[in-house]
Amino acid sequence: MFIRRLLAASAVAVLWSSTLVASPASAALSQCNSYNGWLCTWTSTGYSGTFAVSYPSYIGDCMTMATTARSAWNRTNYYVYWWTSSNCSGGEFESWGSNVRSDLSATARSFKFTTQ
After folding, report:
1. Inter-residue contact 77 to 84 (CB < 8 Å)
2. What is the mean pLDDT of the chain?
3. Mind giving me the DSSP string for 11-48?
């Protein structure tokens, strides 16, 4: 009987503690919750590293970042084209509106918002 109570208490404690602790990725993503309509980036994969935001003010213009991006949450309604070098040169890869990527598959140095 004592062992059953101990196991039941342990199960309740585990369930209670797991509801209070968010995963590292969801905690990092929450940095972007108040930036609806913005592009959120992190310098490392898994939404870690330095966090930055960009507003789509200049649609079609190349934006070279002060840092780099390895993970991103595009909360805009625009496509985002990524490049591995500054001035939208080097390898290109793409993301689109409301897309969350924990690993961009390459380190981005510049990007461009477009309508398609």
Report:
1. no
2. 81
3. HHHHHHHHHH---HHHHHHGGGTT-TTSEEEEEETTTE
The candidate with the shortest Cα–Cα distance to 33, out of 61, 6, 73, 69, is: 73
77 φ/ψ angles, rounded to the nearest 5 degrees: -100, 15
CB atoms within 10 A of CB 74: 24
Answer yes or no: are the C-beta atoms of 32 and 22 closer than 8 Å: no
pTM of the prediction?
0.76
User: 93-107: string of b/e by CB count within 10 Å (b at 16+)?
Assistant: eebeeeeebbebebb
CATH architecture assignment, domain 37-116: Sandwich (2.60)
Instruction: Assign 26 a pLDDT band (cuts: 50, 70, 90).
Output: low
